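Structure ticket #2291
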Amino acid sequence: MITIRRAEDRGHADHGWLDTRHTFSFADYYDPAHMGFRTLRVINDDRVVAGAGFGTHPHRDMEILSYVLEGALEHKDSMGHGAVLHYGDIQHMSAGSGVRHSEFNSSKTDPLHFLQIWIMPTKLGIKPGYSEKTFSESEKRGKLRLIASPDGTDGSFAINASACVHATLLEKGERIEYVVPPGRHAWIHVATGDARVDGQDLHAGDGASTSDAGPLAIEGASRVEVLVFDLS
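Resolution: structure written out below.
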C-alpha cells in the first residue's frame, strides 16, 4: 500500500525572487502531519529567478543534496568550495559541526529549478564535507541509478545517513521495479513529468511513500524523472 502526497497540497511560498514548494514542514510552513518521512526531512522544489539566490547562511548536522533540474546553480561555502552546477550535476554537503554557504542562480537571463533535499545524519558533529558529481542521462535512463548511499557504492555519494537515493529517467510506457527491503521504507518523488506507481497516477511534485516490503512498479506516463529514497 502506498500513501500519496499531492504536489498541490505541499507548502508554498512566493518571495518574488523565489517560488518554493515544501513537501514537508519548512520555514514558515508548518504541518505536524508532514514533518518528514523517516530520516527524510526536506524536499524543497525551488525556482529562482535570474541573478537571485540564497545569501550566506548556516547549516549543521544535516546531509544536504542539491539536485539541479534546469538552469545553473552557483555554490560557495566556508570550506572554500565554489562551483556552478547544471542539469545532471548533484551536490552533496555534510553540514556536520557547522558550515556556511550561499546558493545563487548564476544566470542573468534564465530561471533556475532545483530540488533541495535534507536527510537526517547518523552521526552528529562530524567534520563538514562537500562533493559534487555528474550523473548523465544515459546512467539513469530506464534504470535506477544509485546516487547516494552510506558507503558510496557504485560511484554514489557517501553520505552520513542510513539512506540510499536512486534516480531514474523513464520514457512513456517504460517500466522499472524497485524492491523495498524488509524493515526499510520508501519515498518516491516525481521531479518532472508523469508516472504511475503501483497503478496510482503521479505528476510532477507528487510524492508517494510505503513501509511495505516488496516490489514497487514505476512506469512513465510521459517522459518522467523520479527519485527513490530507501530509508531506515
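Closing remark: The mean pLDDT is 97.
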